[in-house]
Amino acid sequence: MARLIATLGTSPGGIFESYKNLIEGNYQGDNVEKVKIDEVYIIRTSDKAVEFAWKLVKAIFTCCGAKDVRVYDIPLSITDINSRQDFLTFKREVESKINNGDFVDITGGRKSMSVAAAMSARNRNAKIITTVVPQAEYNRVQNLIKQLEPREKEIEMAGEGKCQTIDICQLVSKSALTILLS
Amino acid sequence: MARLIATLGTSPGGIFESYKNLIEGNYQGDNVEKVKIDEVYIIRTSDKAVEFAWKLVKAIFTCCGAKDVRVYDIPLSITDINSRQDFLTFKREVESKINNGDFVDITGGRKSMSVAAAMSARNRNAKIITTVVPQAEYNRVQNLIKQLEPREKEIEMAGEGKCQTIDICQLVSKSALTILLS
């Protein structure tokens, strides 16, 4: 069993797609095989927009066909990376969550978060992945997210398993490509 | 003498500020000191907007007070990172440019480029830096860049030393913070 550790920014973009592509063995890399993932850790700041993105991620994992996987929210006390101290705090937290053989998804969040996650993955002998989405598809999802903003309550309910009132799975991209970077 | 190796995206953002902050010893890190930099390498794709950003960087270095430094443009044949092959091409190129003790600026370009540069820096025993700009300041610079788009000819001339016709140094941010990440 492997774990997926992902940084999260203001868009849920890519984490569920990374998960799905890994378990289906549908990614670019050497020795591609289906990966059994039983835990997903989302590392994020406590910025308001990022908190909303986390609710979307939770709803997507709950409603869009993820099976036998637990998704953990790891909110840090910082709201952004504006100093060396913020960076070191973020890196220490990410690194403490990574085990040998885990998959670390660097797609979400600030660039310095991605770099912190990649450096930590290297230190822990974990694999580094990213998921890319064509620009037009990315724009489609961003527009949908804007429309969903006033419906936070329903999104929270979807995250609790009440998936009927909101079509959260539109946010999942079918053309996302996952790449094993290292 | 150290070199500064920087990834570049569609915005010139941060490279000149990184250079300036390093030579002035004005950055966050352990054992901060003034760094002597005599060469700057800009690694970029051959995307049209990125090419324009390169012209801005060249004009800024020419007109805004950089001294005794040579700036090299390293355009790659790829236009973006859309596959594992693109990533590996980019990483190989970055890594071939980095020497022990260099400073690698991961601020510009796609996240996967930043990660490629950071991983390469680690492999080569180089230092990793980033430069952050407050959001309002970032927006100011982005708006200015939009206004400069029709003036490509003048920007090219500024890059050749004819700095009088265009105030390119407005693009340089005074509130940019450079951080030594590793």
UniProtKB/TrEMBL annotation, chains A, B:
Highest taxon listed in the record's lineage: Archaea
Gene3D superfamilies assigned: Hypothetical protein VC1899 like domain (Restriction endonuclease-like)
Protein name in UniProt: CRISPR-associated protein
